[in-house]
Amino acid sequence: MTKDIQPIFILPEGATRITGKDAQRNNIMAAKLVAETVRTTLGPKGMDKMLVDSLGDVVITNDGVTILDEMNIEHPSAKMIVEIAKTQEDEVGDGTTTAVVIAGELLKNAEDLLDQKLHPTVIAKGYQMAAEKAQQILNQISASVDKTNLNILKNIATTAMTGKGAEMNKVKLADLTTEAVLQVADADGNIDSDNIKIEKKVGESAEASTLIRGILLDKEKVHGAMPKKVENAKILLLDCPIEIKETETDAKIQISDPMQMQAFLEQEEKMLKKLVDDVIKTGANVVFCQKGIDDLAQHYLAKAGIFAARRVKKSDMEKLAKASGGSILSTLEATSEKDLGNAGVVREEKVGDEYMTYIENCQNPKAVTLLVRGGTEHVIEEVKRAVDDAVGDLIASLKNGKVVGGAGAPEIEVAKELKKYAESLSGREQLAVLKFAEAMEIIPKTLAENGGLDPIDIMTELKALHDKGEKWAGVNVFTGKAMDSFTEGIIEPLKIKTQAIKSASEVAIMILRIDDVIAGGGSKPGPGPEMPPGMMPGMGPGM
User: Fold this and answer.
1) How far apart are CA 461 and CA 442, in angstroms?
2) Is pLDDT at 270 greater than 80 in this prediction?
């Protein structure tokens, strides 16, 4: 007589588990869907997405990372694809769509190999070899760039903005971003994007955007009697309040005579007057304070003809110090004129519906402000994203010193060279390297499709040109023909391509190696069917 075998559960109740081929298919499908979502936004003729959140706020964009961020993706594999876009954004600031589309295509091609009974680890190995080779190919074909190549730098910025909301004014904005990046570059070539402050104000068109050789503050002067404009500004940057210090603990002051009260108030006034006198002694005619300024102190400063603003953000204070060459002081004692910053003019002006303070015409500012304008909130947000991308591209190009042509040319060149490389391999990895090469062609194909062109015609023409040695032959989506992307001024930083391939291949390999997905049970344990009525979970009959 056989004994009934009791089933053994090793997972909590409500947990789900997908194994083997189903797990792989499920993960690949999710990744492909993410890539398909952003694919239509690629290139100069890419379309935009409108994203509406639960509160009804609307975002209109074709920036890959913004789309994926706003979509609040839940699927675990799809989240990994979103991470590629975030890494690309942090490392370069542009090329997020490219990275995601390549990852999706790598997984789609891997699916064909899995159908041919190729083991996932063999595919992973082949992809890894191909990714390393692709990095070498890109480095070999890249061209050098430095601060002196002004024309190339402007073309990089223009390329970054093409196909985005800023396209109509891309030449003007490219000039501004190039000037801004070169201005904040250190002598050793180091550039920090934080030193370029991008302020946006709704009102005029994007054509009215300007570069301020200094800082624009979202602040107004603290007292109506202060001057609206100060020429040859000597700027005092304070990290201490111009107020009477309060006691650390709660203190009681007992007064028995009204005269004592009067003396107390007069003493307070004297202390404030001394603080203001200390400010005047420094020779400053403009004061920016990170903390508060007492009402009475404001009155004294106004009488002395000093322009003052209070509660300035710490980040803005640091930018002010870099722009004006001044020091941020924590005390007014032992302050000399060399601690002050300088600016050609400090003025208060109404921009849109609020007052702002311009600190401009600084000598050699190491922090500048790009004031971006636009007709509506949605337009200006997209213009700002385009300017952010352009700034990221310029910094990546100058840091790395290498650029490549755009328009899908480097991807076709990489695909061509990878196919040659695959022929030199003898193992099964050869198939994976070939599929990797094919996946690279998705970028020019997508550019053609988004431009309403026939991808097959374009691809055959481009491959023929690349075989003849024209490494920068790319898709001209406006004429429907091939072009030399470099001479046409379609130039991108090498870092965009190397980073995109690196993160896309790493994530594709990681997803391929997963053969088991175990999701924890989300349901809380409730009274089971075998529990007697009225008994709580966990309550035994002996309780």
Assistant:
1) 15
2) no
Q: Which of 37, 96, 158, 159 is the catalytic position?
A: 96
| Cβ-contact 167, 477 below 8 angstroms | no
Catalytic option among 69, 94, 389, 393: 389
Catalytic residue status for 335:
no
Is the pLDDT confidence value at 436 over 50? yes
CB 372 within 8 A of CB 384: yes
Active site residue 389: yes
Is 393 labeled as catalytic in the residue annotation?
Answer: no
CA nearest 31: which of 102, 128, 124? 102
Domain with CATH 1.10.560.10 in the chain: 16-143+404-519
Distance CA 30, CA 28 (A): 5
Six-digit token pair at 167? 């396209």
Q: How confident is the model at residue 247 (pLDDT cuts 50, 70, 90)?
A: low
CATH superfamily membership of 16-143+404-519 = GroEL-like equatorial domain (1.10.560.10)
Q: State the maximum Cα–Cα separation within the chain, in Å, rounded to a whole number.
A: 108
The tokens for 19 are 């194994």
Q: Does domain 216-360 have CATH number 3.30.70.360?
A: no
The answer to whether 370 and 390 are in contact (CB under 8 A) is: no
Tell me if residue 257 is catalytic. no
Assess if CATH 3.30.260.10 describes domain 146-213+365-400: yes
- What pLDDT is attached to residue 390? 85
Q: Rounded CA gap, 290 and 288, in Å?
A: 7
Model confidence pLDDT, tens digit, residues 50-62: 888 778 888 887 7
Mean pLDDT of the chain: 78
535 alpha carbon, distance to own chain's centre? 55
Q: Which residues pair with 349 in a beta bridge?
A: 356
328, HSE (Cβ side, Cα atoms, 13 Å): 19
Residue 14 region by backbone torsions, left for phi larger than 0, else alpha for psi between -120 and 50, else beta = left
